[in-house]
Amino acid sequence: MTSHVMSLRISSEMKEKLERISSDTKRPVSDIAEEALSEYVLQQEMEAKALDEAIERADRGDFVSHEAVADWLRTWGSADEKAAPDADIFRKR
């Protein structure tokens, strides 16, 4: 994989933390920063995908009512715990 040089500003506190981790792990600061940035980017991509999927589901118009969810949640931890409710509100088509 080709690597590129990137410049960014970080706080003194963050710089010290990166240097401490670098010293503790005997790894270059750049490797630690790249790993952290990779994890952050992956998390952002996953959140964006989840949001896109939620919007897609909402656009289909099938929802679970507050009452159905509340009834379900009240059974949590009981001997009569219910399964998650199915959609009971549908978009008029």
Summed over residues and divided by their number, the pLDDT gives a mean of 94
SS-based class: mainly alpha
Strand content: under 5%
In which range does the helix fraction lie? 55-70%
Global geometry: elongated
N- and C-termini, Cα separation: 50 Å
Task: Report the order of strands and helices.
Answer: HHEHE
Overall tally of domains? 2
Count of DSSP E strands?
2
- Lateral strand order in the biggest sheet: 1-2
Backbone CA Rg: 23 Å
Low-pLDDT residue intervals, each spanning 5 or more residues: none
Work out the helix count: 3
Largest sheet: 2 strands, antiparallel
InterPro entries: Non-func_TypeII_TA_Antitoxin, Ribbon_hlx_hlx
Protein name: Putative transcriptional regulator
GO biological process, one term: regulation of DNA-templated transcription
How would you sum up this structure, described in words?
- With 93 residues, this protein is mainly α.
- The chain has two domains: 11-60, no CATH class; 61-93, no CATH class.
- 59% of the residues lie in helices and 4% in strands.
- The chain has helices at 12-25, 29-60, 66-74; strands spanning 62-63, 89-90.
- A two-stranded antiparallel sheet has the order 1-2.
- The longest helix has 32 residues, at 29-60.
- The protein is elongated.
- The N and C termini lie far apart (50 Å).
